[in-house]
Design brief:
With 144 residues, the chain is of the alpha+beta class. The chain contains three helices and six strands.
């Protein structure tokens, strides 16, 4: 059933390169792992840059050099929540996001959500550097 909901995809590493098994075959993701990978891809991709789906992606890159104000913190947290909630597999009303730190060298943001019919929330903590690079700091996911 899970494969029907989440589909299957080529599993990507932290650097978004395809993972290859020792026998040379591509490693596949399935279940919740596929959904979590899709959320990561959406957040890491700048909105409008995917040529076949200009509505895919996020605008978190736009906050990198902004001032650390309460308005900007709320805007960034809202951007995270909106983009994650766009995934049809995310249970409505379960997305929670926050800015953990923000200074002249970058920011750290956190977002958590629960997929439909899952009892364990997924959690993603991202660090955005002043050069615009986004890296995953922590990912706490349910095991299938």
């Amino acid at each position: 059933m899970s494969g029907e909901v989440y589909g299957q995809d080529i599993r990507l590493g932290a650097d978004f390169q395809a993972l290859v098994a020792a026998n040379g075959e591509l490693v596949l993701s399935d279940g919740v792992q596929t959904g979590e990978q899709d959320v990561r891809l959406r957040l890491f991709t700048r909105l409008g840059t995917l040529f076949y789906d200009v509505n895919f992606g996020s605008l978190i890159h736009d906050w990198i050099h902004d001032e650390n104000t309460s308005t900007n913190r709320l805007g960034l947290a809202s951007e995270l929540a909106v983009r994650v909630a766009l995934d049809s597999r995310v249970e409505p009303g379960t997305v929670v996001s926050s800015v953990l730190s923000w200074n002249e060298t970058g920011l750290v943001i956190q977002v958590a959500w629960t997929f439909i019919d899952e009892d364990h929330p997924s959690n993603l903590v991202l660090e955005v550097g002043e050069d615009g690079t986004i890296s995953e700091v922590l990912q706490d996911v349910a095991t299938d």
